[in-house]
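Hi,

I'm pasting everything inline rather than attaching a file, because the server keeps stripping attachments. The sequence lines come first, and each chain or strand is labelled.
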Amino acid sequence: MEKFFDKWIAVDWGTSSFRAYLIENNDILGDVETNDGMKFVQNHNFEKTLVSLLEPWLDHKHKIEVLASGMVGSKQGWIEAPYQKAPCNLNNIEFISPSIKDNRFSLKIFSGILQSNKPDVMRGEETQIAGFLYDNPNFRGSICLPGTHSKWVQIENGNIVNFKTFMTGELFEIISKNSVLIHSVTSNKIKKIELKRAVDEIFKNPEFFGNALFQLRADDLINSKGSVIYKSKLSGYLLGLELLGSLEFWEKKDIVLIGNADLIEIYEYILHKKVNSIKLFLSKDMVLKGLKNFKNKL
Amino acid sequence: MEKFFDKWIAVDWGTSSFRAYLIENNDILGDVETNDGMKFVQNHNFEKTLVSLLEPWLDHKHKIEVLASGMVGSKQGWIEAPYQKAPCNLNNIEFISPSIKDNRFSLKIFSGILQSNKPDVMRGEETQIAGFLYDNPNFRGSICLPGTHSKWVQIENGNIVNFKTFMTGELFEIISKNSVLIHSVTSNKIKKIELKRAVDEIFKNPEFFGNALFQLRADDLINSKGSVIYKSKLSGYLLGLELLGSLEFWEKKDIVLIGNADLIEIYEYILHKKVNSIKLFLSKDMVLKGLKNFKNKL
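And the predicted assembly:
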């Protein structure tokens, strides 16, 4: 078999970004990262967008396999890859193949996961989880994927047992940009000690949250302590709310954080003394490993 | 004294709306209501805007007194009417008079109230409270003014003793319009029984709030119960958070609700069994009475 056939393309196609890797065996031969997120694709031109982004890696002699996951497989995406029901194992994740006009590649879009008892969904995170489980098949504990929609996921015997989503990142963004706090949280720095204090405050007195947000604005009007303080506190209040609601996932547990470097560092700083053990991984590494894992199981 | 001199103009000039009344003794001779809120006034053209709106009521023979309150007196408004410090009495509320070119009227803009120990501010609500106290000078209990920034205010001996603001209305708006829930809360109806259930849920388990918002979206994706349900629950979760944080203001207390008709009716529905007594007033009536009250004390 010609070596060329071992090449394949891994695609992480989320709501607001696109990332692809050309892979041969375990080597990354090339990669591309753009802002062509699912939501920016006009007139449902998904194939056209994908071809333009992967063009340098396509040729007419050898059909190449493209494996994708993320929001591209949602109802608003290219084609809906039906959710798989949790509890579930990631070793037999399903996929869907949209019809493709270009005959230089085939495409499989992997499913997201759905939980029906306490309604929840994920799409893209399951791939990162599969990436972590690729090297750690016997992990028992919780995986946290902080971000726009933070997920806490309980793992046992390679299964997703239970999970919960928190709109922490999205609330932080819309409150910062669209509420009266816009004037008070202009800084893009975070002071970790202030953030931690705010987390602890909500953790001890969750009833304070309702008033806490407006108090930031009022404190700024009265005392002008600077927007780093208010931004750090806002982050802390929202993170406090998440940690309060995810207690069963981390208290005295082994936990794994998968996300971007800044975010997982903050979560580690807040959680390291409260949990049994903590390990950090970058989401872009885990997506790639996850797609490799899915490919191996095909 | 010519009767004409008893005429004056009451102005409620908020962030997003403008309301004015021409008053003689206790009669309203005319009123105007527009969307010329403080934030829509271009290039600081406050005098020009005011003159154009009041033009029919102005004449060169008699200078008329205009009394205003609301966000027009904020830093972002016409001129900053410095806050008065709570605890405070509304019988000696201060005002500021911007310099006016037009000699057909004079203008007084009343101060807002500031609380420094638990940082909070109000601007406009103090006028509504003064309106209620005009007829109820001996009220002892709490006044709630639901809205974009809901206020809970403790009243004793005609004084504002203590107050707390909750961004309930603003959070409801930005979550409905700017988050992933946009797809699930399109209805503009509320089902009160669902709202009440959601209030009770947060009240019993505040730690649920973090996950509750995303759960609405997931439930819609999985079970499609209709956006009336999700909108009602979103309202309920946010109101639950407010009631949790304002417990000291209403539990076993006499309370007064001042707001728009729909909103105070919802608050009454949720609170009537939990409080000692409850009375409802429309904010537009209370603003007018409040300005009359301020005028009498000048």
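Chain B has a mean pLDDT of 94.

If the labels don't parse on your end, tell me and I'll reformat.
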